[in-house]
């Protein structure tokens, strides 16, 4: 199967995304917006789940109604930023099981480094939604999906909020069977492999952690030498 990229152009998603991107949006509102956008994206990304007929009784009459047809889902956020999308998705599909994959991008090589991996035992019976707000070089998403594929899931979809063209290309080539859903396809990456115009560092903006060491990359994707103020 060839991978497909769906960009959600729903006005509510686009409106919320513009506020999310704004550098003046603080941590609390940023988290709330990530959640709201994820909920709207979940609604769109689950549009093709098959339904089955069930007979129910309302207080007025017996009727044949629709329910989702025994589909088993798993949600797998890529730590940390992917966790910002998890609660909203779980509110929409509360019966989903949850796995976690811990990856961080090395600041020099920009390659993902794995530090955690715990998936539901029955992933081979499930359709998996991988969650991460940012698809930049595509390295983290591609590695996370390779890890998940070792457990033979029924299918994998990748949900992100902003995708760079470079990341889409890498993910499409490495996993052509995986459908990609995003709210925006941005212009390009900067010299530190941050998305332009993007929104900065998603994990830092969700959790309010600006700088992790003496030399780091700030939430705008620039190399900084001193600790900077957390918003
Ligand atoms: O497509 P890539 O070039 O791999 O970049 C995208 C990754 O970078 C960010 O995570 P980060 O490494 O900053 O970890 P964090 O979520 O802990 O902040 C983001 O949440 C993705 O996982
Ligand atoms: O722009 C980017 C790229 C990688 N990770 C982020 O959080 N933002
Ligand atoms: Mg980060």
From TrEMBL:
Record-given protein name: Uracil phosphoribosyltransferase
Family: Belongs to the UPRTase family.
Organism: Ruminococcus difficilis
Binding site for uracil: 195, 200-202
Any coiled-coil regions, as ranges: none
Gene Ontology CC: cytoplasm
UniProt KW Transcription keyword: no
Encoding gene (name): upp
The keyword Glycosyltransferase is assigned to this record: yes
